[in-house]
Design goal:
Strand content: 25-35%
Distance between the termini: 23 Å
Radius of gyration: 13 Å
Domain DUF4429: 24-104
Structural class: alpha+beta
Oligomer: single chain
Protein name: DUF4429 domain-containing protein
CATH class: Mainly Beta
Number of helices: 3
InterPro entries: DUF4429 (IPR027860)
Number of strands: 8
Strand order of the largest sheet: 1-2-3-4-5
Order of helices and strands: EEEEHEEEHEH
């Protein structure tokens, strides 16, 4: 995964490429974009903008050597559900408010995105 900071944006702007999509945080909005085959096959193509004030929680599951991780943004009224044991990442791959990533993608910087959203 590649993390890039927008040169002329607010200092908080960050973009992270995950396994099932891309996440951009500009300090005000979280934008999830689905590009590429895997991203489109799991959730469908398109873009979702979430105002930061609408996010009630951020769930971060770290990726391991053999399992993928994810970042998930919970929004009140959108029916967040609990996953069965061992199904969290599978469910996140189908969730429009989540992006799944591999351990190598985290090492390139996706973890910074979670920290910046929490700091707000």
């Amino acid at each position: 995964m590649t993390v890039t900071y927008a040169p002329h944006a607010q200092p908080a702007a960050v973009t992270a490429n995950g396994h099932t999509g891309q996440v951009h945080f500009d300090g005000t909005y979280i934008t999830i974009t689905r590009k590429g085959f895997l991203a489109r096959a799991s959730v469908g193509k398109g873009e979702k903008r979430i105002p930061l004030g609408s996010v009630s929680s951020v769930q971060w599951k770290p990726a391991g050597g053999l399992v993928n991780g994810f970042i998930q943004f919970e929004i009140p009224g959108q029916g967040g559900s609990r996953s069965a044991f061992g199904k969290q990442t599978t469910d996140a791959a189908r969730d429009e408010n989540s992006v799944v990533f591999t351990k190598s993608l985290v090492n390139k910087g996706l973890g910074r995105l979670d920290g910046r959203a929490r700091d707000r």
